Amino acid sequence: MPFDPSSVLLAAAALGLLLVLLQLVALRRHLAAPPAAPRATPPVSILKPLCGVDDRLEENLASFAALAWPDLEVVLGVRSARDAAYPLARAAARRWPGRFRVVLQRGAPGQNPKVNQLVTLARAARHDVLVVSDSNVRVDPGYVAEIVALLEDESVGLVTHPISGEGEARVGSLLDHLHLTGSVTPGIVAAKRIAGRDIVVGKSMALRRRDLEAMGGFEAVKDVLAEDYVMGRMVGSVLGKTVAVARTPVRNVSERRSLGDFTARYRRWGVIQRHAAGHLPYAGMVLLNPILFATLGAALSPGPLATGALAATCGAKIALDGAAARLLRPGGFRKRQLALVPVKDLLFGACWAWGLFCSRVAWRGNTIEVGPGTRIPSPSPRPVSAPLPSTAA
Predict the structure, then answer these.
(1) What is the DSSP letter of 164?
(2) Is the peptide bond before 113 cis (omega within 30 degrees of 0)?
(3) What is the signed CA dihedral for 35, 40, 42, 46, rounded to 10 degrees?
(4) Within 10 A of 278 (CB to CB), how many other CB atoms are there?
(5) For 245-302, how does the pLDDT look when each residue is reduced to its tens digit (9 = 90+)?
(6) CA 159 to CA 152: how far, in whole Å?
(7) One-character DSSP codes across 190-225
């Protein structure tokens, strides 16, 4: 019997659907449990590096101002007073003077621009529970309480969060949120619950200051691009502890991303993931894209059977992604939005292929050559600026 590559591709698509279903089951079980409640209310510092003005940045900051916690500070970091986010940060500090402070980056110890800000922010923070939160993140009222509750377990070295999305007004933002709810968050939760593997997402991660110092501080990841992934690995290898995944999602706020923005983001993701996870695990990630396999199968052997299999695969993947979204955000997505899942998965497949062969990314205005383990080789291609004094408002 002659070898039929389309049959192999369709079988891979069926396997991919099964894996996506397993991820959905793991996500459902994870989110079904109520968030943990803390026994105490220690003071907490939230470190929020800013770079430019994200969509609805003022409203994102307001969600942190509204957090009901007895002793909580939000330290807003900007690289320099020339950053477009600086006036908004100063305005937030004036509006909520007991909650927000603004700190200018002091020096550039490493080649990762975000980590350079975190080094300054950690030094400026007053408290021992440190929470890193991206500028485009919005949170629910119980955000800090759940973090503190999880960190009361001494075997937990770091807390990260599921991610959903909101605010999508353009197609790039919509595709990003479809991917976050349908692939990224279910993958993080399933890796933890099924495989026992810790994956940290830098949009929200919290840890004790003493654990951060035991890992070498943020300086330990100043020259790697995937600082969140590497820190997640260090929690086990250096601290002998584990990463806890919270129950309540944080919300990625994005309105105006274009299709080009989406593909640029996930091309960068592909390069970083391959260098972080290694060639073989990265190659295996493609099994979670059943629509890509079904499309290739239909292209190799056009006909009613392959076309029907492609249609069935698309329908099943849309249904699974829709179910995951309903778990992570109120109401999930509308049907016409979910209809773009096949487009999103095919574009993501192209970005995955890009990541197989490329080692250079563009991020925060810098072009960066990525080495093994996402290390940024010297000399750094990023522009060097003079150290800036720290100020607070």
Answers:
(1) E
(2) no
(3) 10
(4) 12
(5) 999 999 999 999 999 999 999 999 999 999 999 999 999 999 999 999 999 999 998 9
(6) 11
(7) HHHHTT------TTEEEEEHHHHHHTT-GGGGTTBS
Rounded (10°) CA dihedral 209, 377, 262, 46 = 10
Residue 127 gets the label, from left (phi > 0), alpha (psi -120 to 50) or beta, of: beta
Encoding tokens for residue 129?
């529970």
Nearest Cα to Cα of residue 220 among 30, 375, 5? 375
Quickly tell me which residue has 């972080």 as its tokens.
276
Read off the amino acid at residue 219.
E
Q: What's the chain's Rg over C-alpha atoms?
A: 21
pLDDT mean values, one per 10 residues, the chain (393 residues)? 79 97 98 95 98 93 95 97 96 96 94 94 98 96 97 98 96 98 98 95 96 98 95 97 97 96 95 93 96 96 92 98 97 97 98 94 79 80 42 36
CA pair distance 124, 121, nearest whole angstrom: 5
CA distance 182 to 176: 10
**Residue found by looking up tokens 């720290």 in the block:** 390
Q: Cα(164)–Cα(185) distance, rounded to whole angstroms?
A: 8
Q: Let me know: does 342 contact 291? Beta carbons within 8 Å.
A: yes
Question: What is the pTM (predicted TM-score) of this model?
Answer: 0.92
